[in-house]
Amino acid sequence: MSILRSSPPAAAGPAVPGHVAIVMDGNGRWASRRFLPRVAGHRQGVESLRHCVHACAERGVRVLTVFAFSSENWQRPADEVSGLMDLLVRALAREVPQMHRDGVRLHCVGDRKALSEKVCKSLAQAEAMTAGNTRLVLNICFNYGGRWDIAQAAAALAARGEPITETSLHEAMAMAHVPDPDLLIRTGGEQRISNFLLWQAAYSELFFSDRLWPDFDEAALDEALAAYARRERRFGKTSAQVQPPQPQSRGPVVA
Question: How far, in Å, CA of 135 to CA of 156, rounded?
Fold first, then answer.
């Protein structure tokens, strides 16, 4: 069951996207340019995320999904991976109480089997504390991959002996609790989605920013939202089909 229900997407799309997804790229490069350890960039990235959560809630976004740690990130240097795990636990302890007061519901998405007991406990506590909030859903994708999500959904259906259809697969996804993203943003100058929300982003509008994630501020978010507002979302239809009918002009009334 969805945390936030939504009607089918309107053809022309609202001025503000209901669901924004972000690949938060560039933390390491931000730190390297300042001759700092990479984990310093990740710490600064947490600050950017805090501001982004607040800005999205203020602008009427209902769901924010961020790519925090991919299933491929285990290949990074061991000290960076360890630092990211510690940072997650500390960030949750520090940030979640304020998120709770602000009405944010935290939902952690990803494969938890490879995570330590300490990390899993922190995630579970954060979800439990914020479970009743409805202002904004914040999905943190941690040890997540789009291929993993599709595979685990198919495996779950097969284990239950259920037919695999588009509908059943969608409902078995780890992101089934929220509508698909309307807008997918990637920071850091790269123009790819890197195994993020492969199924859910089928009709998402894409926006690529050259800013490194620690430098992604409210002005950068507003730039992405403005670009989204200018898009015409057709979902396979023609432009003529999705445009609202124009009022008929009438000539002067003759007595």
Answer: 31
pLDDT at 74: 83
Whether residue 6 is contained in a domain is answered as no
Give residue 11's pLDDT: 43
| Catalytic annotation, residues | 25, 73
Give me the domain span that covers residue 86.
Answer: 19-230
Mean pLDDT calculated for residue range 195-217: 97
**Domain-located, residue 8:** no
Q: Do the domain assignments include residue 251? A: no
The pTM score is 0.87
Model confidence pLDDT, tens digit, residues 161-175: 999 999 999 999 999
Contact 186, 3 (CB under 8 A): no
Structural domain total, the chain = 1
Using CA atoms, how far residue 129 sits from 3, 9, 150, 195, in Å, is 15, 31, 29, 30
